[in-house]
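Section 3.1 - Work completed
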Amino acid sequence: MKILDGRKLSNIIKEEIKKEVSKRSSKKKKIPHLAAVLVGNDGASLTYVGSKVRSCKQIGFLSTLIHLKSDITEKKLISELDKLNQNPSIDGYIVQLPLPNHINEERVLLAVDPRKDVDGFHPTNFGRMVLELPSFIPATPFGIIEIIKRYKIETSGKNCLVIGRSNIVGRPISILMSQKVSYGNATVTLAHSRTKNLKELTLKSDIIISALGIPEFLKVDMVKEKVVVIDVGITRVSDKNNSKGYIIKGDVDYVNVSKKASYITPVPGGVGPMTIAMLLQNTLLACKRKD
């Protein structure tokens, strides 16, 4: 069994980006500038945005955090996004999800300029990705693809099962894995809450990508020998013995499934760090497109 170390790989990618930023600086080219819009004070969102800001500083990016009150109106929020759309110094920005219940996420994401949509959520970018045209790939699927490429995992002709059909992870990664590219050419099945006989599917799968959000859902008796397992799940589980009061669990029973797997991502330290690295990669791409 080989661990797919997303933390180590993300640091390698950040170092590659840092070197490119340094070269841009020496040539007096624009330094990439990433902005993050955070509405309210959700603990997980604060932690995640904070990590993004620290990563920007680490690799030499400029960063801006726009922290708005939780009771902001949808109209006012969209007005703030329009300012970012019109600001030439901002190369890309993200709107941290989830948003408060009184705000329509779809309308907000549609307000993002596709040229600055480094999260890859805008329908324009999603559609271009489906058609295999240049686009911003959603950061988490992008991170999964980069893990597959850099660890040289064979995907061509393999049975790949994606568990979860969200527009953020499940749907895009199912499309990417089926495309006629070096990291694709897999035979993909997309499973979800209405899927029957899921265990039959998991036992036939060479590659399983789980983005379900149910802690330790995938058990050892559900996978075959030498399976490749990519765990996207990140769930806080109460734990009184932990100083934080919780621990992070993935979708996979890691301790037991890892005994059968040929490759497996840990949680934490697998896909999570790669999501941030690829967000930075998208921001660099957005900046370079202006050159």
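Second construct:
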Amino acid sequence: MDLGAQEIADLVKSSKVSATQVVEAHLDEISRYDSRVNAFLLVMAENALEQAKRIDVRRSKGEELGPLAGVPIALKDNMAVSGFATTCGSKILEGWKPPYTATAVKRLVAADAVLIGKTNLDEFAMGSSTENSAYFPTKNPIDPTKVPGGSSGGSAASVAARFTPIAIGSDTGGSIRQPASLCGIVGVKPTYGLVSRYGLVAFASSLDQIGPFARNVQDAALALQVLAGHDDRDSTSIPGSHFDNSFTDRVAGLRIGVIQEMTTGISGAVEHTLNDAIAFLRSMGATVEAVSIPSTTYGLSAYYLIAPAEASSNLSRFDGVRYGLRVPGADITQTYEQTRAEGFGAEVKRRMMLGTYALSAGYYDALYGRAQKVRTLILDDFAKAYGAYDVLISPTSPTVAFGLGDKTDPLAMYMADVCTIPSNLAGHPAMSVPFGCDEAGLPIGIQVLAPAMGEQIMFSVAQSLQNGAAKPAVPVWRRD
């Protein structure tokens, strides 16, 4: 089904189509084509149809429906939904059903969205290809021999494949924006604290943020308007926060900086697309200039100390005693060891060991402490840049989607997030907008970055880029 979220909501509210018909059509698409993609870990068909029927009954009674009336939504499987399995793509949580629901999910349901399923991800959101899932890799709908990106690869693939018009992911170091770029869709990482993290299974608490995927900028903004807002259950939630999606597509008179450090080491196709985007924005009346943000070159190194350190703490709760997998041993210590050895995958173990080492006595100041100082430098450098420019742009990913199994070296995989990580360290909003393709038809995204709480101007630039973008890529099975 090619209708967008706003189109579906308008049709359902006007009784031109029922929510049940919309959900049935999307479930049919999933049934027919997800075997080619593996976007979903769980399809909540019965629950989705029940939700849709309740919406239709309310509409028939003349009740006012929410902004996402009847819109099918896919959720990354690290967000709790009461009574439904939440695995985080890991064997250690296989079969665990949380007794609570994430605030972001509650907001979607309150807006009359329909939860259609839980999507695949790199285990505990640690990865850039969705090949680290304990269950199966997800494939890119544009070219199933390629990865969809990660860690929110299942959510990105769901939207790119037309299984849902909107999906929700989490972004710790680029896990929404990078797969959005590789799948040719829009992906948004909001300002840290704009969207509640309550009910999101934590990877790195000072970096994680929930955000939407959509096939167009307007639908992404509609979803963010629903998701945004203060939550007393999240101590990092911004008081009084909200997002008003009444932005324009005007960029005339704006000052836009192109981050120099993020244009080195990119592929020729990505560089060509970036140059096209720069030329387009200039043609629309924006001033576009190169800007240096020197400390971003250290972002990757700082991130891979801070994020694993926080992960080593957050994942210590998975011990085989309270929930999830349990592998009994001779005593409690052996039970801990055997459960974690069998339950966690290689990448999760790698990052937990790295994080524990970075926090250990004798290394804390030299590693974790120094990484936090780099984080402060990045914040300072961004502040200087935003003193001269309204927004910044860069490639989202240094390359197009790479082949399944191509990157077996962890360091090579980590480089996939080199352009996205600095925004997480700073806590600033950033989003990816599809703008072009390489010669093989693989999508290329442009990243738009803004200062904290600068979502409105970020979306204006993104909307303008969408207006000038090449024809969007479509799933391989939908091509003539």
